[in-house]
Amino acid sequence: MIKDSYGRELHDLRISVTDRCNFRCQFCMPAEQEYEFYPRSEILTFEEIKRIVEVSVRLGVSKVRITGGEPLVRKHIENLVKLLSEIKGLQDISMTTNGFLLSEKARSLKEAGLKRVTVSFHSLRDEVFSKVVGRSIKVSQILSGIETALEVGLHPVKVNVCVVKGLNDGEILDIAKFFKSMGVVVRFIEFMDVGNVNGWSLEKVVSAKEIVRVISREFEIEPVEKSYRGEVADRYRYKDDGLEFGVISSVTQPFCGDCNRLRLTADGKLLTCLFATDGYDIKTLIRGGASDEDIEDFIRSVWHSRKDRYSEERLEKLSKGEVIRKVEMFKVGG
Q: How far apart are CA 211 and CA 199, in angstroms?
């Protein structure tokens, strides 16, 4: 295991395979903005991604999550999953998706070696969901993808719900009940200030404590111990059926001290924080003929010098009126 300047070990690698998306979510790519996407020649190939993962596994990475943009818009994404599944020592391959294409892709992803999937979910009401994602969507289209994922064995299927005051905070209990009946784990996420264009303000944040309070009014719940250091969600169990839900409290209860995640952007930059302002160019190194040892030394040096703890510093920065230009969510990969 390699450690950063705060003693945090590297375990997880988040891989953004594209900066493109078929939605225009308010949290990430608001429709009123114009976007310039990476040209195809700048995007890492599947073989380049595999090579980076192979080296990362030697340094302690055991889990990989495929993200975007929307990963399912990347052509033949199942081929990447297959390549990654061949890497000895890689224990877990998962994906975060908006779910729109999941019905048609779930089986091939499972057969290629994907272990589990997380679906971003915003509301049980078509009009709210459509408002969030910037296009006309039937919630049933997303639910169909979740059901297909369950059918083909992508367990556990989880849904991520970003809770925003005045938008979908009135649905916390309804969403919890709905997915409880399906046996699907929900993770409620505090609205975070990732990127620069999502209109974030502290007033729009619904705290994890409030989310738990709302659910506990209806159900008897109990906290569950974290299963590993660096797990981002605080987990709770329903006493009646044992199903879990989680809350992610990056704003009100930062967990920087246990963060063990490195991020790889679609254009080949390593980011050491979700709230990073820039990255480290590993693509140029690879395309310049670097050996695996060169790549290993590069990743090691990036991680060793890491000192990010943005969430712990957020309120101090806000109080000083500091303006920080962060990498946009759709390029970071969540």
A: 21
pLDDT reported for residue 315: 67
**Do 160 and 96 touch, CB atoms closer than 8 A?**
yes
CA angle 319, 323, 325 (to 5 degrees): 140
CB 155 within 8 A of CB 116: yes
DSSP state letters, 45-72 = PHHHHHHHHHHHHHTT--EEEEESS-GG
| pLDDT tens, position by position, 183-237 | 999 999 998 776 565 566 778 899 999 999 999 999 999 999 887 776 788 999 9
User: Residue 331: what pLDDT?
Assistant: 66
Max Cα-Cα span within the chain: 59
Separation of alpha carbons 139 and 262, rounded Å = 32
Contact yes or no for 330/69 (Cβ under 8 A): yes
- Torsion sign across C-alpha atoms 299, 303, 306, 308: positive
Residue position matching structure tokens 């979908």: 168
Residue 333 near residue 268 (C-beta atoms within 8 A): no
**Rounded-to-integer distance, Cα 150 and Cα 185, Å:** 12
The parts of the chain modelled with pLDDT lower than 50 are none
Which tokens is 130 given? 């459509």
> Three-state DSSP class for 326?
coil
Alpha carbon distance 105, 123 (integer Å):
23
Which residue is associated with the tokens 């719900």?
Answer: 161
- The CATH H-level superfamily of 12-332 is Aldolase class I (3.20.20.70)
Where do the domains of the chain lie?
A: 12-332
Token pair for 117: 């999937």
- Supply the pLDDT for residue 25: 84
With a CB cutoff of 8 Å and minimum separation 6, the contacts of 32 are: none
**CA distance linking residue 143 with residue 34, whole number of Å:** 29
Encode pLDDT of 48-65 as tens digits. Answer: 999 999 999 999 999 999
CB contact at 8 A, 176 and 245: yes
